[in-house]
Amino acid sequence: MSELSPRLARMRFRAWHRGTREADYMIGCYFDRFHGEWDEAAIAWFEDLLEEDDVDVMAWALQTDPVPERFAGELMVRMQQLDYVDIPR
Fold it and tell me: N or C: which end of the chain has fewer CB within 10 A?
């Protein structure tokens, strides 16, 4: 992995240190897989997402709760696919 800017490095840390293993894998793997493709708007979206409670983010990704309008869109649809999660065995 190439070296991250300080902003992205902080985001990566926060994505991987959520408080539960499930959230770490869901949010951390999402960051690792897609951050290289993000423009400024996507980065800002993810920074806002990191401020939300894990249970809410996971419910939106698992489609058990409706996604708030400010998080709805292509980035959340991609998160809902869950094919980016790689859990080591």
Answer: C
Instruction: Quote the CA–CA distance of 10 and 85 in Å, as a whole number.
Output: 20
| Per-residue pLDDT at 3 | 82
Residue appearing with tokens 């997402």: 49
* Alpha-helix runs per DSSP H in the chain: 6-16, 21-23, 29-34, 40-50, 54-61, 74-81
Burial of 85 (0-12, 13-18, 19+ CB in 10 A): middle
Domains of the chain, start order? 6-81 (1.10.150.250)
Whole-angstrom Cα distance, residue 13 to residue 11? 5
This prediction's pTM: 0.91
Q: Which two tokens stand for residue 55?
A: 């249970």
Q: What is the mean pLDDT of residues 42-62?
A: 97
